[in-house]
Amino acid sequence: MNAATEYQVMKRPQDDEQRTMVRKVAVSSFMGNFIEWFDYASYSYFATVIATVFFPSSDRSVALMQTFGVFALSFILRPIGALFWGAFGDKRSRKSALSLSIILMSGASFLIGCLPSYEAIGLAAPGLLMLLRMVQGFSASGEYAGAATFLGEYAPSSKRGIYCSLIPASTAIGLLAGSTLATVMTSNLNTVALSGWGWRIPFLLAGPLGLIVHYIRTQLADSPVHEEMTKALENKEKTAADGASPLKVLFRDHLRELVISFGASVLNAVGFYTVLTYLPTYLSETVGMDATQSFTITTICLVLYVLLVFGMGHISDRFGRKKVLIGACVAFIVLTVPAFAILNTGLFWPILLVELALCATLSANDGTLSSYLTETFPTNVRFTGFAFSFNVANALFGGTAPFIATWLIYTTKSTMSPAWYMVGIACIALVAMILSHESTDKDLASI
What whole-number distance in Å separates Cα of residue 180 and Cα of residue 172? Predict the structure, then answer.
């Protein structure tokens, strides 16, 4: 046996262990994001029902704005949660942070499904709803960033884009499950059943699913590969000149990267929540389309989105993250206003084609952003930098997107106003991406 062959034989067990670890991390990342976004999709898709349960009002638009207002309030704690989970993950353990956050997030979702209505307990009902949504926001703020960071650190450099695209894909599959469930339930249940118990089902499902993910993640904590990475991070921190916290290092040494990452994330925030969660409500409440038809269109679009997200991750591996993200910005600027004009026709097939085009554009952004943000920051502040920039963008622009869209229509009396809002956001993201640096295919340990 020559030296090369002997080396390969000695290396195989370690390679097999590495591949096994990547698969386990991928599964846990997928399931964690699935639960989070299944819940958020359910809240958005059942927004009109939740409005009648918790916010009874003679003005349907006001009740809907109150419902989306609570949706937006759940994002207030996201920046705080991002700093907490980011520092936890950077200084201690990625998986420990994710194992704890999933319990808080799924537990809050389960309790929402148990809440009494406004009719039963009065103002306490929307108050408790708001409190639980804020717990969700705090706990969920580390999920997306933490899962992408951990998976990206294990993925081969040349395939990091397609590996990290699993994170937005799992997000979309969560939305797809929520959309499918909403379609089936609205088609088969009457208004009384939906308001009484139907809307609670997706939230109650989060409880057992969260326990499953928590179990998987606690098992991953004992992985030798994970322990080796954690030890490397700890040694790096011990040898640091001032022992500064990840947050201090982030703002002191990486402020430019943080600002650009925030700018890149705003389009993801507005585009994602507008195209994939708000449009079903827009079509049914503003355009007047049948709710079953609007949910059906969204379900079809989500299937395409999941497939395209993986494709965009692969394209970004080949051509670079910056080029793909710039292309997505330009496409949103050009397509959004004409797309909304067609949405307002209320015709099924034109609306389906337009939403498919918007989903394809969104997939270029979403399928690339997670790997881009992972590559932007060094190891000692990667989780914190990713989580903070991503969650601040979502807190300010993502969680408020349905509320702002509803408010713009209500105040301007123009159904086109959400389109112009998205165009403005796309322009901000375009400037950020032009100012950014390309980090595709770099070794994360060297960044």
Answer: 12
| Cα–Cα distance, 66 to 63 (Å, whole number) | 5
Q: Which tokens hold the place of 425?
A: 């956001």
H helices present in 221-320, as ranges: 224-238, 246-253, 255-273, 279-281, 291-319
Half-sphere exposure of 236 (CA within 13 A, CB side): 17
115-132 per-residue burial string, b: 16 or more CB within 10 A, e: under 16: bebbeeeeeebbebbbbb
Number of compact structural domains in the chain: 1
Is the overall model pTM greater than 0.85, yes or no? no
Give 80-130 pLDDT, tens digit per residue: 999 999 888 887 777 788 888 889 988 988 998 898 888 888 878 888 888
Task: Provide mean pLDDT across the span 27-37.
Answer: 85
Residue 339 has pLDDT above 90, yes or no: yes
Range of the domain at 155: 24-221+245-441
Place of tokens 């956001």: 425
Does the residue 249 lie in any domain? yes
CATH number, residue 302: 1.20.1250.20
Asked if 153 contacts 233 with a C-beta cutoff of 8 angstroms, the reply is: no
